[in-house]
Amino acid sequence: MTTKTIASATVRAVKKRMLPSRAALILTPSAVQKVKEIMSKEEAKGFIGLKVGVRQRGCNGLSYTLDYASAKGKLDEEVKQDGVTVIIDKKAQLSLLGTEMDFVEDKLSAGFVFNNPNIKGTCGCGESFSI
């Protein structure tokens, strides 16, 4: 089975929780807009939303994964905000609790940025983190 990358993600450690909320993950307006754009593509037909997970990778231990979600798993967390659905993989729930998902675009790069208060350290490039 091959995995296709649908978006890139970087991580930013923050000192404290940014917004009080009961949601496991908070999306900024730019992230909501980008998820809507991704889900409107022809290849996204038949999927219910994006799935966020973590996997062991990089120089600091963990990195985020983004993929299409065809169904919500039994223990997965579902976040619905402003008309988009994001599924959080059961293995990523504790590491994402209280995180803000943003989409940032500049002259050199564009991608999702996770502002995560649970992170203890990140690598220099910002792609991997430790909890």
TrEMBL record:
Protein name in UniProt: Iron-sulfur cluster assembly 1 homolog, mitochondrial
UniProt source species: Euphydryas editha (Edith's checkerspot)
InterPro entries found in the cross-reference section: ATAP, ATAP_core_dom, Fe-S_cluster_asmbl/transfer, FeS_cluster_insertion_CS, HesB-like_dom_sf
GO terms under biological process: iron-sulfur cluster assembly
GO molecular function, one term: 2 iron, 2 sulfur cluster binding
The family this protein is said to belong to: Belongs to the HesB/IscA family.
GO cellular component: mitochondrion
Residue span, Core domain: 25-127
